[in-house]
TrEMBL record:
Gene Ontology CC terms, in alphabetical order: cytosol
Role summary: Necessary for normal cell division and for the maintenance of normal septation.
Superkingdom of the organism of origin: Bacteria
Gene name tied to this protein: yihA
Family per record: Belongs to the TRAFAC class TrmE-Era-EngA-EngB-Septin-like GTPase superfamily. EngB GTPase family.
PANTHER family reported for this sequence: ENGB-TYPE G DOMAIN-CONTAINING PROTEIN, MSS1/TRME-RELATED GTP-BINDING PROTEIN
Domain EngB-type G, chain residue ranges per copy: 23-194
UniProt protein name: Probable GTP-binding protein EngB
Cofactor or coenzyme needed: Mg(2+)
GO molecular function: GTP binding; metal ion binding
Biological process terms in GO annotation: division septum assembly
Length: 194
């Protein structure tokens, strides 16, 4: 799939603000702050600044909707894992995400994990939520350019002590080098046709 058109549609907080239901498949991106979510959306769409990168942590708790090629949605979900954010904001984040996950939309979620880090408790909570709400989801390991093949091999072994998966079932992505881009776009195209 080649992304010919990518446009910001709207920001939403709760379900009544999502774009009108139109049976488009939604591909949503979620992960802890700084995992590289904005960079990945920009890389996928080849837009420098479609999703904003490196915003002030915790400030934007919005769901951002993008329309891709006039036929699918990319959904940028608010990140988690801000140490300094007040409890009330965290609670609010939970409501926003729960509302989204339980919404009646055709969604596929990509959970982003930084390849250099062992998944945090919040990452594991997020996974539990996805399982609990029976969401179709896939893992994308980000910033893959930061590790050599040998380091990657070792790191995956460590991550697997906490999280079980097959290497063939996850994606590896570098927004810096656009590695993994074609594979992910192909996957998205296949999922759109199903
Ligand atoms: P977000 O908070 O999840 O949206 O994360 P950002 O996209 O803003 O990225 C956080 C930081 O990681 C920024 O300094 C990015 O330049 C950097 N970054 C993101 N993706 C990559 C990547 O694939 N490779 C490298 N080397 N750095 C990345």
């Amino acid at each position: 799939m080649e992304i010919k058109k990518a446009e910001f549609i709207k920001s939403a907080v709760y379900a009544n603000e999502y774009p009108k239901f139109n049976n488009f498949t939604e591909f949503s991106f979620i992960g802890r702050s700084n995992v590289g979510k904005s960079s990945l959306i920009n890389s996928l769409t080849k837009r420098k600044n479609l999703a904003r990168t490196s915003k002030t942590p915790g400030r934007t708790q919005l769901i951002n909707y993008f329309l891709i090629n006039d036929k699918i949605h990319f959904v940028d979900l608010p990140g988690y894992g801000f140490a300094k954010v007040p409890q009330a904001v965290k609670k609010n984040w939970g409501k926003i995400i729960e509302d989204y996950l339980t919404s009646d939309r055709k969604k596929i979620v990509f959970l982003l994990l930084d390849l250099r880090r062992i998944p945090s408790n919040e990452d594991m909570e997020m996974l539990k939520w996805l399982e609990h709400f029976e969401i179709e989801y896939y893992i994308i390991f980000t910033k893959s350019d930061k590790l050599s093949n040998n380091e990657k091999f070792k790191q995956l072994k460590e991550i697997k002590k906490k999280l079980v998966f097959d290497n063939e079932d996850v994606f590896f992505y570098s927004s810096l080098k656009n590695t993994g881009r074609e594979e992910l776009l192909k996957f998205i195209e296949e999922k759109t046709q199903n």
